[in-house]
Amino acid sequence: MTSSLRERRRQRLCDEILEAAQSLIAERGYAAMSMEDLAAQVGISKPTLYSHFSTKEDLVVAMATLAMERLFSAVDDGDPPRRSPLARLTDLLRTGVQVQLDRQVTAMHLWMPEIVQMMKSREESLAQLCRIDAVVVDLVRQAQAHGEIADGLDEPSVVRIFYALFMSPNVARLSLVDTPDPDTMPEAVARFFLRGVASGKNM
Length: 203
Hints:
Radius of gyration: 19 Å
């Protein structure tokens, strides 16, 4: 029982470190975030931080992998699909935008070139990237096969449109407009996606 309690405390601290790392990267960028600043943000010593993550790269890969797992958890419901592929893809987009707004998970920072490169160099995080992309690409292909995607839209374009809209909660942070409304933006993004890619019969 003592061991279990110790493990739970260690996991809670690990989660807190990853959340703080994501916040600092969103605020300053990867290059400007130091392990010293991160330790201070969490309120722990540098040796304690390094006992959890031996390098900055290990930390960032773990942070990005966890964030992606949260953002795409909607695809792992385990239920047989009852909705059309385009409906499932749109639900994934809507849910991903909602999670970002509710939890302040920033999808855009997951796709920074240096973070993507780090993730591609690690077997576990590369597998996660490929798994997520495979789900999105498969749903796009199924939607095309069912005639749900408008004629003339190629698969790579639809996939990139999906990812661009997925990251939309964190675009234009310096704009003069207010921050997006978490109660209305997910549905607005979903409608925008459908109007842009759906064939006439799915409008």
